[in-house]
TrEMBL record:
It holds the Pfam family DUF4351. InterPro entries: DUF4351. This is DUF4351 domain-containing protein. Residues 251-307 form the DUF4351 domain.
Length: 316
């Protein structure tokens, strides 16, 4: 079943693609706000500042959040807080958390932020966009911008005709959701979306960036992944292009790597960061060997012993 191949970490590709194409993201999802911004002046990602106001990591939820400094056409500086809600389960306190982040930014940095949310879940009626309370002498009404990716299901032709990178992002996201437990159908759509990148006549760097996103979210079982790569190589040969020459390394091996890490966590528990890095540094052959060996692991010590034995073999 394809459930075994679902990604644990889907915030990373969103963070990467938002950084690579931030102006396009704003123009695609929030055109009214984008129209206020002077895109000829460089925007700045305020990762350090965001870490000072974000406290949700301890809750175990994954977010792809970005705090960005931009300049208005009139010359004033403004901050944008972009939140990508990746988790499929609606959250009752979501609107309160959006208000809380906005307030923390103003409190710590004396900067009003434009708060925007991209909702990636599958619940059609969950559409938080405001937080308020009302008492006789005190009232508050806070609204934030919201985009629901599910709505693009009815705008598929519009997505196909768009050359904005985020049209591809939305299509990959929707087809990933629609093909859970349908690996064959997912393989077909994955190939179709990758082929579309070439048909759009995009620059090589754009094909590579979007390929990385599609490949990461549309993970396939091992056998179908091999079939996909064969089809993909034939596509590049037909078009006399070899843009994704490292495709198997950054795609197939990365999928294999995450699957092994996930199986290890199920076997021996949460992995220390240093151990995770050791596993990530393994070659494809060593990953396959670890994938077989871990079936006999019962404790963290088994993994550590295996890694130490492997290190000794390498050194010798």
């Amino acid at each position: 079943m394809i459930d075994e191949y679902e990604r644990v970490d889907n915030d990373s590709p969103w963070k990467e693609i938002l950084e690579a194409y931030f102006p396009q993201a704003m123009q695609f999802f929030f055109p009214q706000t984008a129209a206020l911004i002077n895109w000829e002046r460089p925007h700045e990602f305020l990762d350090k500042e965001f870490q000072q106001i974000a406290r949700d990591a301890e809750q175990g939820r994954r977010y792809a959040d970005k705090l960005v400094k931009v300049w208005q056409i009139q010359g004033q500086e403004i901050w944008l807080l972009i939140h990508v809600e990746i988790q499929a389960k609606p959250e009752e306190i979501f609107a309160e958390r959006m208000f809380s982040y906005n307030l923390r930014i103003f409190d710590r940095f004396a900067k009003p932020a434009i708060s925007l949310a991209i909702l990636c879940d599958t619940h059609l009626t969950w559409r938080p966009n405001q937080y308020s309370y009302n008492y006789p002498d005190t009232k508050l009404h806070f609204e934030f911008g919201t985009v629901k990716l599910l709505d693009y299901q009815n705008r598929w032709t519009e997505l196909e005709e768009s050359d904005n990178p985020f049209a591809t992002v939305v299509m990959a996201h929707l087809k990933t959701q629609q093909t859970i437990k349908k690996p064959g159908e997912r393989k077909t759509w994955k190939f179709s979306l990758i082929r579309r990148l070439y048909e759009l006549g995009l620059l090589e760097k754009d094909i590579r960036n979007l390929y990385r996103f599609v490949d990461w979210v549309m993970i396939l079982p091992k056998a179908l992944e091999a079939e996909f790569w064969q089809d993909f190589k034939e596509l590049e040969q037909e078009r006399t292009m070899s843009y994704i020459t490292t495709g198997e390394r950054i795609g197939y091996e990365r999928g294999q790597q995450e699957l092994v890490l996930r199986q290890l966590q199920r076997r021996v528990g949460e992995l220390p960061q240093e151990v995770t890095k050791q596993v990530q540094a393994l070659s494809r052959e060593d990953l396959e060997a670890l994938g077989e060996a871990l079936l006999d692991f019962a404790a963290m010590s088994d993994l550590l012993n295996w890694l130490q034995a492997h290190l000794n073999e390498t050194e010798n």
